[in-house]
Amino acid sequence: MKTGEFNLKRMVRGWTAVAASALLISCASAPQEPQSNKFQLTLLHINDHHSTLAPKQQTLVWGDQEWQVEAGGFPRVAAQLKALRKANNNVLTLHAGDALTGSLYFTLFGSEADARMMNNVCFDAFTIGNHEFDNGDAGLAKFLQQLGTERCPTAKLGANIKPKVGDSPLTPNRDWEMFKPYTVVERNGEEIAIIGLDIASKTKKSSQPDETTEFLDELETARKYVAEVQQQGIEKIVLLTHIQYERDKELVQQLPGVDIVIGGDSHTLLGDFSGFGMESDGPYPTELTNADGDKVCLAHAYQYSLVVGEMQAFFDGDKIEECGGRPHYLLSEDIQVSDGIVTTYEPIKTALEESGVFSFVEPDAELQNMLEDYQSKVEDFSAEVLAQVPQQICSQEIDLPRRDGCADVMSSGAHRLVAEAFLHSVPEADFAIQNGGGVRSDISQGDFTVGDAFNVLPFANTLVKLELSGSEFKQAMEEALAYSVSDGGSTRAYPYGAGIRYSVDLTKEKGSRVSNLQVWDKGSNSWQPMTARATYVLVTNSFIAGGQDGYDTFYRVSERGRARNTGIDYAESLVNYARTQDVLKRPQDFATQSYVPAGDN
């Protein structure tokens, strides 16, 4: 049903009170069958799979031992979704955004592999996430054209996304040409509206939409379309959001009419995983209250094709009476102990089966064959060994809790090596900067391959040289740090570097958070204070050189003609650097010399 259409049922709802009263009087003497207002809706959902089509190895802690098991992968996602659809009535199958970018499947095949697998699953609706814009409006337009078939007409949603008509490939002729603000579906005679939202500020500043594409306020947009569907007589309302778990909770409390929220972006694990050495962010589903004082069911499904969410929403009339359901963390039955001798695996298998959060799932055969076709090409590309890694090099962002194996490092060694690789590829540069979000994995102990390099740096970025003054560089750093702590910003804007060092105090006012800036002087082989009026050559990735993640001054420098795109792929720079090193060692020195987080004031 198209936006704004009215059917006979809605016309009947709009009869005048007089006509309705006459109908009731005429039928008063007839025997009436009791009617139930109860309705159960099942919502199956995933989010943030980020082109992660193959399974991963998962470590579980149970019975004072570590266990290894294969987890997730899109063929398992497909198998579980198909099985749950058969087992339930009144089902919606939803994807809450960030289907794209983050693996070699996207690097090598673009959005093709993701779209083919999603079409096989057949989602009723998909909301556009920030990473869908990583290759601009044109990249998203291509994906949306690939997504959905005649058999499976997936609704593509984004109520607060406003491309410029005639300018963007998303709206070559008119508004809502390739996606729409909401869709209306019917289950067992009940109409349900699904409204899609994307995270506004983060998408504009931390992805690469076209400059003329606007992102409207999430709350105001939601209010507008909730009111619009209610005017059509629809009172069962689902928000399909890509705005983060905490923001979902804030939004719901300010909105009337909303019954269900299926969300993404924050990679939030919900449910009780404490018995297996894993922490979650809340219960599955999370129960909230909307602005009308009515119950709302909220759920997210973690990340990387690992979890399928199964929410059960029980309606009494048009209001939620009860929230139920569970996450399905998808596992292979082939479990191995990390160390020690185990005679039977039945106890841990039983514990997993009874956990209420894990499910043993065999991959869908059709999608497994599809995956293997792509996987053989990925493996051929990935296989070359570039260097040896004697000790894991952590992608440990400075503002995040220390992880196992990374507790002894102040900052991210992986980011440091990436910045060194930039300098190796552009030796005329004085220093290099890499934002936190551009590095996506650790560098594991053992062989370091071409595939590993592209997994560490999976995005379509190139190296850019910027000529700028010391004062311009400090201003850009202050802008990025302000963005990292702002509402709707991204902590992954934080700068990591090589050939540069500095101190950061996020408790101070904007403009005073960076101090003690020093640059490595190649002539004297010593650290020298950065001078405000001196000119320096910086090498960075094209993403932040274009002003994303809050680095506005970099964009202004580029606009003034003081930037040159080298054309060197940022992952290729790491490939070439690793080849020259033979051994990649864990860095001991970092650009950040001291760090005071925002919560310390």
Question: What can you see in these coordinates?
Answer:
There is one protein chain. The chain is of the alpha/beta class and 601 residues long. The chain is built from 17 helices and 28 strands. The strands form six sheets. Strands 1, 2, 3, 4, 5, 6, 15, 16 and 17 form a nine-stranded mixed sheet that branches. The protein has a six-stranded mixed sheet with strand order 8-9-11-12-14-13, with helices on one face. Strands 22-19-26-21-27 form a five-stranded mixed sheet, sandwiched between helices. Strand 2 and strand 3 form a beta hairpin. Helix 3 packs antiparallel against helix 11. The termini are far apart.
Shape: globular
What is the number of strand segments? 28
Give a short account of the largest sheet: 9 strands, mixed
Could you tell me the radius of gyration in angstroms? Answer: 26 Å
Strand content: 25-35%
From the structure provided, what is the oligomeric state, counting identical versus distinct chains? single chain
Separation, N- and C-terminal Cα atoms: 53 Å
Q: What is the residue-mean pLDDT, rounded to a whole number?
A: 90
Unreliable spans: 1-34
Which structural class is indicated by helix and strand composition?
A: alpha/beta
- How many separate helices? 17
